[in-house]
Design goal:
Layout: H1 10-24, H2 27-39, H3 53-79, H4 85-94
Helix pairs in contact: 2-3
Length: 95
């Protein structure tokens, strides 16, 4: 079997991890995520293939529950303080 060597740019990876962490620490990320989940709910006229009405209802209920959790997460973030200037400084050095 042939081995494949994969090169990983560690600095780029480190930057992306920090960027993702900061993004997920912002309420706006979770509000956008909630909106995307709600947009995924079924609508009249959608093609559902072999899914039953119960399957569709269960999926929509899961999507709405997940969206509600995202909105709750955003609310909790908003109750806390803003991102520390120290965090912003570290991220600006990495990016």
């Amino acid at each position: 079997m042939r081995q494949t060597t994969v090169h990983v740019d560690v600095e780029h990876f480190r930057s992306r991890v920090l960027q993702d962490a900061l993004t997920e620490a912002l309420a706006g990320y979770w509000r956008t995520r909630a909106a995307a989940l709600l947009a995924s709910c079924s609508r009249p006229g959608d093609f559902h293939g072999l899914s039953t009405a119960e399957d569709i209802a269960a999926r929509d209920a899961r999507l709405r529950a997940d969206a509600a959790r995202c909105l709750q997460h955003a609310y909790v973030i908003e109750l806390g303080s803003e991102v520390s200037p120290d965090v912003v400084n570290v991220l600006s050095e990495v990016a």
